[in-house]
Amino acid sequence: xxxxxxxxxxxxxxxxxxxxxxxxxxxxxxxxxxxxxxxxxxxxxxxxxxxxxxxxxxxxxxxxxxxxxxxxxxxxxxxxxxxxxxxxxxxxxxxxxxxxxxxxxxxxxxxxxxxxxxxxxxxxxxxxxxxxxxxxxxxxxxxxxxxxxxxxxxxxxxxxxxxxxxxxxxxxxxxxxxxxxxxxxxxxxxxxxxxxxxxxxxxxxxxxxxxxxxxxxxxxxxxxxxxxxxxxxxxxxxxxxxxxxxxxxxxxxxxxxxxxxxxxxxxxxxxxxxxxxxxxxxxxxxxxxxxxxxxxxxxxxxxxxxxxxxxxxxxxxxxxxxxxxx
Length: 326
Known about the structure:
Blueprint: E1 2-5, E2 16-19, E3 29-38, H1 41-48, E4 64-72, E5 84-88, E6 97-101, E7 105-107, H2 114-117, H3 121-134, E8 142-145, H4 151-162, E9 166-171, H5 174-183, E10 187-190, H6 196-203, E11 209-214, H7 221-227, E12 228-236, H8 249-255, E13 258-261, H9 269-282, H10 284-289, E14 296-301, H11 305-314, E15 320-324
Parallel strand pairs: 8-9, 8-11, 9-10, 11-12, 12-13, 14-15
Antiparallel strand pairs: 1-2, 3-4, 3-6, 3-15, 4-5, 5-7
């Protein structure tokens, strides 16, 4: 089969569509023929040499895919050859086929194409596990989503609104903020011109955000804590702004607030399976009813993976950049 390989670390130009060995599904796994995959910032970090795949996983980039089951490994129940699925991966989505643990499979939502479904697993599992399973966002609370126009941001807006929360977002252009508003965002903050701490306080009558979903890390840490409400919860899922920051424990104590940092790719199989099961129970009905929708900025052929990476690096997109494989 063929896959996007990374012969050496570097810019998008190092991505190479090449012949590679066919994967074999192990016990508890299925083999998926991939129709589409999507680009995540973790793929960019892997290409640059900063984020190696977990031991034993596929060496090829791609943390999610949609396609069709073509083979079952020993011990798999509840799935059949021919099922249309999408999947959360530890790697290998930029390929013609991938072996997937059965616990990380989801049925393709009714009414969605493979390219739309490919944009879902990573962002939906990330948002649900962090905003709802870690931070326990509740109806009536305010959540601040940094990078509201990103794949994760566009999904977080929709899911938070679906449960009755108020959503504030940051983004870097009027056009991106307008798109966030279309998805349901209530408070729009241009981080180039506004202090998000003051903007959130003003929007909440001085209370602050009950939950903050942060992709920036160190750069935003002190201001995120300042923006939290009493009993607020800050969840850090990215390090685009660095890895080492200063945390004022006095402020955290006075607010009785919490800071959590999580990732998804390196979790044990049973934890990923639990997240996927929760997503299937709580989010899939919202997708199939049209309350929540995947946001796809553009679809490119897999041979143009380098161009897709450039688009994500330039942050000119809204939602997901999808690669068509089949």
